[in-house]
User: What shape does this take?
Amino acid sequence: MVTARRARRSGLAREPSAGRAVEPPLFVMTDHDRREFFAAAMAAAGFAATTSWTTRWFRPQDPQQPDGTARERQLREAAAKAKQQGKPLLVFVVPGASEKEQTEVYVRSRWLGAFLTHGGPTALLEVALCVPACATLAEVQKVTGAAAIEGAPLMLVIDVDRPGAADAPLPKVTRLDLDLDSPILAGKGRSYEPEDIAANKCHIEAGLEKLTTELHKTVHQHGLSLAALADAVTSRLDDDQRRALTTWLATGSGATDELLVRATAEVRRRLGESKDDVHVAGQQRLVEAIERELVHKPLPGGRWHKDSGCGSSPEDPTPEEQKNGQMIACGMGMVPACCERFLSFYTGQ
Assistant: This one.
C-alpha cells in the first residue's frame, strides 16, 4: 500500500469528489525508494545467493580471459607496429594478481582512463609520440626481451628494435614511477554535494597534470627529442605518405587519422616552424585525429568501460555481454565525471 505522503510526493494523489470513491494512486519509484528496495532485496536474498551477481559487477575481472594469451598477443602486435613506424612503445603497466595489486588495478584503470579521456591536448600529444599498449611486467619481459623490472612502475617507454629475437640486445627501458592515490576522494568522490564534487574534480585535475608532466619528462629522459622522433618516423614513410602530410599541412586535408598519429612527431616539428595561427589550427586538428584514433578506439591490452557507480559496462560489449544485459540502476551509485570512462585491463577477446 502506498502511503499518502508518498502518493503526494509522486503527484498522483487525488482529492475525493462527492459520491465518488478515491482511486488508489499508482506507485512510482523515487530515488529514495530505489535505495530502500535495493537494500531490502540484497538483505532478503542473502549473501550466498548474491555472490555470483556481486562478483560479476564489483570484482575486477580476470585480464587474461578467455584463453590467457589475448593481451600478450596484442602487445606483440603493438611492439611490431612501433618497430615498423620507428616509434617507442609506451606500456601502461597492468598490476599482478595479488589482492594488493588488484586494488591497484582499480586505481590505475580510473587514472589512465581519465588521463586519455580528460588529460587534454598536451597529454595526447605526448602519448601519440609512442605506440601505447597495456601489459604486465611479465608480458613486457617476454615480448620485448627486456631485463627483469623491479617494483611497480606506472608506465614504461621501451625501444623495440628487435622484440623477442634471441640475439637482440636488451632493449632500452625508461620507467615512470608515480604513486597515485585513489581518484575518488574518501567521503567526497561519491557525494552529490556541490562542494564535494568540486573538491574531487580539483583532485583529479591535479593528478592528470602531474601525469602529463611526468610522461613528458620520461620521454625526454629516454633520450627521445622531438627532432630525433620526427627523423625516425619520417624515414619510414613512403613517398605518397610524405606528400599527403605536406598537403595536410598546407590545406588541412589529404591525410588520414592513422597517418597523422603515426607521424605526430614530424607534424609537431613542422607546425612549430609555422606561423602562430597555422600552428594553433594545425595542432587542434592533430589532437582531434589522436582522439579518434587512440581514445575512441580500443587500446591494445585493454577495453573501455563505463562506470555508473552501481557497476560497469563495456563500450564494445561481446555477444555474451549483450545477452546478459545490464544491471538494474539502483540509484545508489555516483562516480566523478572524470572517472565515468575508464580503461579496463580485461581484453575479453
Residues 1-65 have pLDDT under 50 and may be disordered. Residues 70-228 form one domain. The two ends are 49 Å apart (CA to CA).
